[in-house]
Amino acid sequence: MKKFTLGLKMSLAAISCVFFCAFSEPDTLIESVTVLQKYLTDHYDTSQESATIKRYELNITNNGFCRYKRYFNSGKTEYFAFKLSKFSGMEYIGDTASGRLLLRTKGDDVIVQTYKDQGGDVDSMATQVVIPLKNIEAEDLNVLQNNFVKISKLVQ
Q1: Sign of torsion over alpha carbons 89, 65, 78, 39
Q2: Which keywords describe this protein according to UniProt (predicted)?
Q3: Three-state secondary structure readout of 87-153
């Protein structure tokens, strides 16, 4: 009887461990997505493009996509999207007051779509997305980098 009770206790412990581990990863993904979305929204620099851009949309989704859409005053729309599993690195060009964040992918993994352009609608591929940022410190860039890497590993 003691062997049965010990076996039952061990199997319950193993099942509870598996149960808790199974539900820990999505929280990490959602948490990382939330952090990325907040940092990018808080530090987005509309003044770098205010003369030509009417509005923008910048979203990091729970299923691992980065989507960036710009609406120009002329009516033109640019849309950039890539799966974060294709993220290869980032680079920041500028200073703490103002700069541009380059999100690089492993290959031509960024979908670029242009609507209502003078040359017509264009679909193409790119290797990076450029996002204007302001008031960002080195620690903030490290947080961005760590969360991009964490999400890219989780969504593979």
Answers
A1: negative
A2: Signal
A3: EEEEEEEECCCEEEEEEEECCCCEEEEEECCCCCCEEEEECEEEEEEECCCHHHHHHHHHHHHHHHH
Token reading at 38? 């907040």
In the chain the first and final C-alpha atoms are separated, in Å, by: 46
Q: What is the pLDDT along the chain (156 residues), one digit of tens a residue?
A: 556 566 666 665 666 655 555 554 556 889 999 999 999 999 999 998 878 899 999 999 988 999 999 999 999 999 999 999 999 999 999 999 999 999 999 999 999 999 988 888 899 999 999 999 999 999 999 999 999 999 999 987
Nearest in space to 85 (alpha carbons), one of 140, 4, 153, 2: 153
The domain segmentation of the chain, as residue ranges, is 2-154
Q: Report d(CA 47, CA 53) in Å as an integer.
A: 9
